[in-house]
Amino acid sequence: IIGARAYEAISTSYRLPCVVSGFEPGDILLALLAIARQVRRGEAKVENMYPRAVTYGGNSRAMEIMDEVFEREDSHWRGLGTIPSSGLRPKGEYEYFSARLRFSLKPKEVPEPKGCRCGEVLKGAISPPECPLFGRGCTPSGPVGPCMVSSEGTCQAYYRYGLGA
Question: Where does this protein have coiled-coil stretches (predicted)?
Answer without folding.
Answer: none
